[in-house]
Amino acid sequence: MKKLLKLNETLPVGLDVVRIISGGIIFSFGLEVFDEGKISDYTLWLTDVGVPFPVVMVYVGKFSELIFGLFLTVGLFTRLSTIPLMITMCVINFIMLDGSIRTETFYLLMIFSCFFFMGAGKLSLDFLIAKKEKENTSASLNKLPL
């Protein structure tokens, strides 16, 4: 029980859980790219609010949700992946939904902002890659002649 109450031990795991769930949510929204009915509805919506090239913008948004949502879920290129996701959430929230802060897109924008600044955490491919690079660097430094 004491271990559960220690913030420094539970916070990283909690953040990993939030990253995995939010990545999965946005990935599931990205899967709508394969639903022609949804794409048509979103295209009409973007046309109504005056977004230029609405068909292209719908596909750009949906593919960014699909690809970068997957990257966020597995923790790959997390900080870079959050940038297009934040842009997509801003477009949806502030252009399509008139700037309401009581929507899931705004909450996802805040979550993606946190991961932009904090990174992926220990349960991620980013962490494994950084750990491997650190091991390779230290191994090569140990081989240097003194």
Automatic annotation (TrEMBL):
Membrane topology according to the record: Multi-pass membrane protein
A Pfam family this chain is assigned to: DoxX
Alphabetized InterPro entries for the sequence: DoxX (IPR032808), DoxX-like_oxidoreductase (IPR051907)
Record localization: Cell membrane
GO cellular component, one term: plasma membrane
Domain of life: Bacteria
Residue stretches spanning the membrane: 12-30, 42-60, 67-94, 106-125
Keywords: Cell membrane, Membrane, Transmembrane, Transmembrane helix
The family this protein is said to belong to: Belongs to the DoxX family.
Name of the protein: DoxX family protein
Organism: Fulvitalea axinellae
Lineage: Bacteria, Pseudomonadati, Bacteroidota, Cytophagia, Cytophagales
